[in-house]
Amino acid sequence: MATNRVLKNIKAVVFDFDGVFTDNRVLISEDGIEHVMCTRADGLGLERLRKLKIPMAIISSETNLVVAKRAQKLGVPAYHGLSDKTVALKAFAEEMSIDLQQVAYLGNDINDEDCLKLVGLPVIVADSVSEIRPLAKIILNKNGGDGAVRELCDMIWESQKQEA
Predict the structure, then answer these.
(1) Which of 37, 69, 121, 136 is deepest in the core (most CB within 10 A)?
(2) Stated pTM of the model
(3) pLDDT (tens digit, 9 = 90+) per residue, 112-144?
């Protein structure tokens, strides 16, 4: 299967945050503090990628520190508050000495379009906006915030686990 061959060649994974780790909703308390919901299952998926020694990063245009705090908890480097996410994507791949064709990028919205076009494996969550669907090699079964990160991690794990 062509998709399995592509998954087998993935050497790094980059994630958007809102709409990928979250369901794209935000809860705002009366003091103006924003809160988001994430699933703990995603963290277990990320552990599988660590076992495979696959570098990961979160790249987000969101300025709220919730991105950095969640990324820190998950042990994944985060670049956030970016107007052009491709700059961070290219820098991450270069820093890791990994060709962009060996990178999977998981996004959900139009601000992920340029990153999806740059990588070898563009992946989107099930509830992604229609404009980016034609760019995806894989459309996950899970929605953002509902285990989509775990789903992608498990797919990569299954294709590469003998290397762990």
Answers:
(1) 121
(2) 0.94
(3) 999 999 999 999 999 999 999 999 999 999 999
